[in-house]
Design a protein that fits this description.
The complex is a heterodimer of chains A (119) and B (109). Chain A has strands spanning 3-7, 11-12, 18-25, 34-40, 47-53, 58-60, 68-73, 78-83, 92-100, 105-109, 113-117. Chain A is mostly beta strands and 119 residues long. The termini of chain B are far apart. The chains are: A mainly beta (119), B mainly beta (109).
């Protein structure tokens, strides 16, 4: 059973960097698949942030590309998200998910973590 | 990269069928057979219900079905049940990106 769990600060100050990690259990991230991040502002819809293939190639939402970095740590079976220069508009529940390259679709999701941007 | 267009809300009575539409462009929905649908209950993570336009993951009820015509994809839920009340999101592949719809709130009357 594949499980994903997000972790990281729940409060980030404006202009700083949001950093989240996603720990995967039940599957080795180096074995395949893309690994992605999706966010959902309170009361709003889903927004894809980006995905990274186990080989290292990355794909980002064009609207966020200049501020986003996704990386893998295969030794910890984790992948991470960094979003720089955050504003209140980045306040959202952030989900990590397994991204099926052949679909593409997100078949396993973490429970989500709320990140609030506020001073 | 614009969000796909979904109706804000749909409703139906138990036992009825409903259809949720998802309209994009030839660069996303119309250009690939890579449309997926997600169900999200309040406070929960989304759940994959349909992928590759018509395919159901293991464990998803066959009351859920997907289709596509041109730039519009559709999710049909037959035999509506109370537990189907949730938000539904479509998503499509688009030139190495993924784009979501704005979401549709399904109310079971």
């Amino acid at each position: 059973q594949v499980q994903l769990q997000e972790s990281g600060p729940g409060l980030v100050k404006p202009s700083e960097t949001l950093s989240l990690s996603c720990t995967v259990s039940g599957y080795s991230i180096s074995s395949g698949y893309y690994w992605g991040w999706i966010r959902q502002p309170p009361g709003k819809g889903l927004e894809w942030i980006g995905s990274m293939y186990h080989s290292g190639s990355t794909f980002y939402n064009p609207s966020l590309k200049s501020r986003v970095t996704i990386s893998l740590d295969t030794s910890k079976n984790q992948f991470s998200l960094k979003l720089t220069s955050v504003t209140a508009a980045d306040t959202a529940v952030y989900y990590c998910a397994r991204d099926v390259p052949a679909a593409p679709a997100f078949d396993y999701w973490g429970q989500g973590t709320l990140v609030t941007v506020s001073s | 990269q614009s969000a796909l267009t979904q109706p804000a809300s749909v409703s139906g009575s138990p036992g009825q069928s409903i259809t949720i539409s998802c309209t994009g462009t030839s660069s996303d929905v119309g250009g690939y057979n890579y449309v997926s649908w997600y169900q999200q209950h309040p406070g929960k993570a989304p759940k994959l219900m349909i992928y590759d336009v018509t395919n159901r993951p293991s464990g998803v009820s066959n009351r859920f079905s997907g289709s596509k015509s041109g730039n519009t994809a559709s999710l049909t839920i037959s035999g509506l049940q109370a537990e189907d009340e949730a938000d539904y999101y479509c998503s499509s592949y688009s030139s190495s990106s993924r784009v979501f719809g704005g979401g549709t709130k399904l109310t079971v009357l």
